[in-house]
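Extended Data, panel c. Modelled sequence:
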Amino acid sequence: MDEQSDREIAGKKQRDQMLKLVAKGFYNELTNYGVRKDEIVWVASHLLGNLLAQEKKPAEGVEYYNGVFTLASVRDEWAICRQLAVDYVTLRPLQVPDVNKVIVWLKVPVVRESFVPRFPENERELRKYFTHPTREYLGIYYNDQLVGIVGGENIDEAAGKLEMKKLVGESGLHGKGYIHSRDINMRNINLNSRFGFELEGVFLDDINVGDKHQDVVRMALFKSVWLQIFSCVVNSQPSDSICESTEA
């Protein structure tokens, strides 16, 4: 079997797994809204009816964020003042005093429980967490105000990979999503996909949140893929991993 056929088979398996995730996420949303199991069959029939009524086929591929920014949009000022910027958004090393604001964000249960594993809740432990040598966290600043964090964990320089967490804490900027989210969060999966993340796998009932078992979704972003997408404004399809995200 040639290399192209292997890629096609792998791509089909990945697509099948993503569709299973979509179906499970949709089913969970329906049951959370109080839809009964017999009514779900009724919903499915309406979905089919809507599909048949469409004049156009659903668009294939992913609409990446390269229509919003590209590498050419990034102001690389790291050598001068350790920061990167795109328009009004700046990334620079997280400062210790800013941890107080992160603690406030993490007091919201849906935010605190969305990370795998969770951040420490104690202020002293959280400060130690962010300054640990195996982690590197940046503050996300909008108009010079801290609105979130993004960081790398389990940094493996030899293998050239890390695990990523991000949080947009300001409620006015929610909708940007979280890299780590509780249960199968389709909005977050779609968000990550638009940055070039690809689904790696699903760990069923992998963690406990309260008295419930929940799945963990793992996605990966490859350096070559990211460069291919964001080096120019094209809706290119992907072809070595720089970071992985784990979503519960």
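The chain is about 35% helix and 25% strand. This feature is highlighted in the accompanying rendering.
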